[in-house]
Amino acid sequence: MSKSCIKAMYVINGGYMDIDKGLMTANTDIGKWIKIPVPVFLLDTTEGYVMIDTGMNPQVIDDPVPCWGEWLAQDVPVHMTTENDFRTVFEKMGVKLEDIKYVINTHMHHDHLGGNRFFPNATHIVQKDEYRFAICPDDGFSARYTLHSDLPEQLNWKLIEGECEVLPGIVLIPTPGHSPGHQSILLKDVPGVGNLVYCGDAVYMKENWEKEIGPGICWNPPLAIKSMLKLKQIADLTDSYVFVSHDWDYFNTLPMAPEKFTVK
Q1: d(CA 10, CA 257)
Q2: Mean pLDDT to the nearest integer, 146-173
Q3: Percent of the chain, pLDDT > 70?
Q4: DSSP bridge pairs for 157
Q5: Can you spell out the DSSP letters for the chain?
Q6: pLDDT at 1
Q7: Cα 28 to the chain's mean position, in Å?
Q8: How far apart, in whole angstroms, are the C-alpha atoms of residue 228 and residue 207?
Q9: For the chain, what is the mean pLDDT?
Q10: What is the CA radius of gyration of the chain?
């Protein structure tokens, strides 16, 4: 494909959850409770607006149990206000829901596609393996897929198999392990950033990356480690900025929308 279509990147604070750190860092620091942010991304591109993950279903603000189920609602407390609803941020930016042309999900867990429902006319892009598993997951992993509340209507899905440059400069990289069809995303030539690798839940925290500790919530732990090492190699070869998904201290140092995301 031609030169990168990305004109600007925005990071939206989608709220946060409380969780046992042992679930983030493969049983390290079990019993230590931490906050983990829920990031949402908006890309302004020459092809229209693109979202990467859509965070939590805003229904959790007022009524989390019907939305997430009793286990998630009680054991992973959520903290979200209307200010964390991307629709509030869009309004400040002058972006309309119908302006979103593409939604890319790293995977289909409850804290990554809760806002997909607001884009019935967009193209929703996910790995085929993830979509299949989300529709009929193994019992031990079913609680993390809350499609009954997150996707009340049929959406326009584009199912990808393997690595793919879906738009110029937006490259999907399969990184299974956390979930069967998890994908990370390489963004090329982001203004004010350069190349950027968004790990999704292939890498939760800086500690996972630096110490090569796998994620604690994991469908396939050995595969998750392999995917993380793959991302480290890609980031090195492409001289990419690395964006991890659920690191509270890291996330709170970043510029938030409506300010453009830059690191330079």
Answers
A1: 5
A2: 89
A3: 96
A4: 124
A5: --S--EEEEEEEEEEEEEEEGGGTTTTTTTT-EEEEEEEEEEEEETTEEEEE---S-GGGGT-HHHHH-HHHHHHS-EE--GGGSHHHHHHHHT--GGGEEEEE-S--STTTSTTGGG-TTSEEEEEHHHHHHHHS--GGGGGG--HHHH--S--EEEEE-SSEEEETTEEEEE--SSSTT-EEEEEEEETTTEEEEE-GGGS-SHHHHHHTPPPSS-S-HHHHHHHHHHHHHHHHHHT-EEE-SS-HHHHTTS--TTSPP---
A6: 55
A7: 23
A8: 12
A9: 93
A10: 17
* Nearest residue to 127 via CA among 155, 100, 150, 157: 157
Torsion of CA 221, 202, 81, 122, to 10 degrees: -120
pLDDT tens for 137-147 read 877 677 777 77
**Residue 154 pLDDT > 90, yes or no?**
no
Structural tokens at position 112: 């990554």
Q: How far apart are CA 208 and CA 243, in angstroms?
A: 12
Per-residue confidence (pLDDT) for residue 153, from 0 to 100: 67
CA distance linking residue 200 with residue 216, whole number of Å: 14
Pairing mode of beta strands 123-127, 100-104:
parallel
Of 59, 48, 39, 7, residue with least CA distance to 255: 39
- Cα 19 to Cα 106: distance, rounded to the nearest angstrom: 21
User: Which residue's structure tokens are 């009793």?
Assistant: 70
